[in-house]
Amino acid sequence: MKRLALAVVLGSCLPGVGLSQAPDTSGLGPRMPLETVVARTLAYSPGVASAQGAVRDAAALRRVTLGAYLPSVALNSSAGWTDQSLASAGLTSLAQPSTVNAYGAGIAAAVDVFTGGRRGAQRSQADAISQAADAGLVQQRYATILLARRGYFEVLRAHELVRVAEESIAQAELGLGYARDRLAAGTATRADVLLAQLAASTARRQWLAARDTLGMTTAALGRLVGADGPVDGDALTALEPVPLALSDSGVLALAPAAAPAVVNAQALASAGAAATTGRTTGASPERCGRGGSSRSAPRSRCSTGSCARRPSRRPRSPPR
Predict the structure, then answer these.
(1) CA torsion, points 262, 268, 270, 275, in degrees to nearest 10?
(2) What is the CB-side half-sphere exposure of residue 2 using CA atoms within 13 A?
(3) Which of 131, 259, 266, 300 sits a CA distance of 20 to 30 A from 91?
């Protein structure tokens, strides 16, 4: 009896909620419909962003493997400048300074004629990686949509839990009033009143737990949609189940062959086999065709007077 009275006293300290009291939804954030929740979750999901980056990387890898079939071209150029003193025979005067400039340019091209199948294996590997990335993106999108829908319906469920808790408080308070009336009429004991008070305090504690659940679910939904605070879900007008496009047997027959996870795994296996083939063919001899041309044009220029003669030998270019 002492424990019962203590529980009743502790429960009476909790805030009371009645049917006339409107639920406080000011701290739950803005309301969003289901379509908006799904769209914002896809836009702010790190998993979707990572999958899209993998698709772009795979597309870049495919372009790199296609570029391996193109010839490589290299351009080179050189320039030199020297200052020489040319002395005239039989003259005691200082030699006239002369400068010599040299210019050169060249172009070289190379193309792999035979690589033993290495480029084909690398291209097959890039195609398989691209297919795996596409399947991974589809899988991640559906997983994100499922996560957004689950978070949205968790908020609606928390609202229903709060409503049920409020109705339980109303029923408990009504039963407490009846117990007090029966005690006053002499048809109930003090223990009946204490039991009714205990039921009312238990209903209030359940209401507080439901409110905590509602706060956590709205905060989790706000994190999914990329908001700075909690986000509430707009109630649906109808919650009728939508029939599936395929039957159970059709889903079981199609999933092992066309599921994104299966396609991803198969593509990764193909990429691994192509990588092994590329490493194996890398040991075979390769043939490369090269070609190029270069041209240099030395020039001589005297700083004073006229040039007596061209230099008999081509000056060396200064070190680079």
Answers:
(1) -170
(2) 0
(3) 300
- What confidence tier does 244 reach under pLDDT thresholds 50, 70, 90? confident
Choice between 216 and 280, residue whose per-residue pLDDT is larger: 216
Q: 76 pLDDT exceeds 60?
A: yes
Q: What is the mean pLDDT of residues 100-110?
A: 82
What is the spatial distance between Cα 230 and Cα 222, in angstroms, rounded to a whole number? Answer: 5
Q: Which structural domains are found in the chain, ordered by start? A: 24-84+97-236+261-302 (1.20.1600.10)
pTM (predicted TM-score): 0.70
Q: Are 149 and 34 in contact (CB under 8 A)?
A: yes
CA-based torsion, 176, 182, 188, 190: positive or negative: positive
From residue 143, give the alpha-carbon distance in Å to each of 139, 151, 185, 245.
6, 12, 62, 19
Token digits of residue 113: 């004629």
Give the separation between CA 171 and CA 141, rounded to whole angstroms: 45
**Is residue 22 helix, strand or coil?**
coil
